[in-house]
Structures are given as C-alpha cells and as structure tokens.
Write a structure and sequence with these properties.
Layout lengths: L13 H4 L3 E5 L6 H10 L7 H10 L4 E2 H5 L7 H11 L3 E5 L13 E3 L4 H8 L8 E2 L5 E2 L3 H9 L6 H15 L3 E5 L2 E5 L2 H21 L3 E3 L1
Antiparallel strand pairs: 1-2, 1-3, 4-9, 5-6, 7-8
C-alpha cells in the first residue's frame, strides 16, 4: 500500500516544504507511450494543467511541494492531485524528500548502504517468503541470485565484473540457468552462454533498481 500524507496535515512552514516532494507513480506502466499520452491529455485547458505537466516533464524525478504550490493558479493542491489521479492510471505520492533517479556508476553510486544487512539476511531465506520495501514504497521480493546482484552493485564492481562473478558462482555451485522464451525453456550451460546472459541481465536488473530509487551517491 502506498503511503499517502493527508494534504490537511502538510506543514505550512516553507523550510519544511522544501523537504517534502511529490512524485508521479505510473505503477509499472511508465513508458514513452504513457508519458506522451499524459502530455497530450493535460493540454486541454484544465486547472491542473501546469502542475500535471510539470510532474510528467520531471518524471521519474520529484517535484517539491513548494514548487508544486507555485504552479497552482486556482483551487487547492489536494484538488489538483485528485484530478491528476483520476485522469490516468497511477497516482501522485508524497515523499519525505525529493526522489532522484541515479544510474549505477562505479565510484559514484551504489545500492543504498542501509539495505545491505537486510539484503544479506534475505539472501539466506531459502523460502523467499520475505521481501523489503524500496524508498518508493514498493515491495520487492527476489531470489538468491538476485540478492547476489544487489550486493555486488556496491559501487566497486563494474557491470562486466559482476557478470563474471555470477558466472563463476553458477559454474562452481552447478546452478541451473534457465530462461523462458515464448513458452520454451532455454538452458545456458557453457561459460560463454552464461556470460552473454548475465551481461544483459545486469543491465536490465540495474535499470529496475534505478526506477525503484535503490541507488545512492557516495
């Protein structure tokens, strides 16, 4: 369940408003088509147009409450948020600080360090029952190999080094690497096959973590 802060409880102190942010959440349907539709939809002279377009343009990053209030000509912030939520799938969420999408870069970004101990704990959960909540308040539940990804994305390993380490793990432990393509199960057994698979998988996995705001600068 997404955490929503009631608008009636929003602090009115400008200094505090700088620390609260609005983020448009497309609920996993965020793509160029959706964003283009949103931009066109909000150009029909509605009162929410300025705020809605600002949220779409800054996506996937956030807009501060103070900035949002400056985009309202008439009506209230809560009214505009209600209208935006009603217009498109997804919703405007509140965050305690601005959300900024960071890409994985060696020496610059890493998976948020405060998650490390919990990720290690989850990696030992063979039943994969437990999961964690991302900074965007999304639930995440991974398999053992995925948790290996998370731990290796520590800002020290390049993507190619991560792929190589995962191949070594599969080869050493005899882990079966299978993929379902068009209803057909394909097995990757050789080092070359697994290397190619993980090179692609690391990019896809890192992109997913970017969308979940799971990286921090250090």
């Amino acid at each position: 369940m997404n955490e929503i802060v009631p608008s009636a409880l929003l602090p009115r102190n400008d200094g505090i408003l700088e620390d609260i942010a609005l983020h448009y959440d497309y609920s996993e349907i965020a793509n160029d088509t959706v964003l283009e539709f949103a931009k066109n939809y909000f150009k029909i002279g509605l009162a929410m147009e300025r705020l809605a377009n600002a949220l779409v343009d800054i996506y996937p990053n956030s807009l501060s409450i103070k900035e949002a209030l400056g985009l309202i000509d008439k009506g209230s912030l809560s009214e505009h948020i209600f209208d935006i939520n009603s217009a498109l799938n997804g919703g405007v969420n509140f965050h305690t600080k601005a959300q900024k999408v960071l890409k994985y870069e060696v020496g610059k970004t890493r998976v948020i360090a405060s998650y490390k101990s919990f990720i290690k704990y989850l990696a030992r959960d063979k039943n994969h029952i437990l999961g964690f909540v991302t900074p965007q308040n999304k639930s995440a539940n991974f398999c053992e190999l995925d948790y290996e990804f998370l731990l290796l994305l520590d800002g020290k390993n390049t993507k190619s080094e991560i792929a190589k380490k995962l191949v070594e793990k599969c080869q050493k432990q005899g882990i079966a690497l299978n993929e379902n393509k068009d209803g057909k199960i394909i097995s990757y057994k050789t080092v070359a096959e697994q290397q190619a698979y993980f090179n692609k998988a690391v990019d896809i996995f890192a992109k997913g973590l970017e969308d979940y705001f799971m990286f921090e600068e250090f």
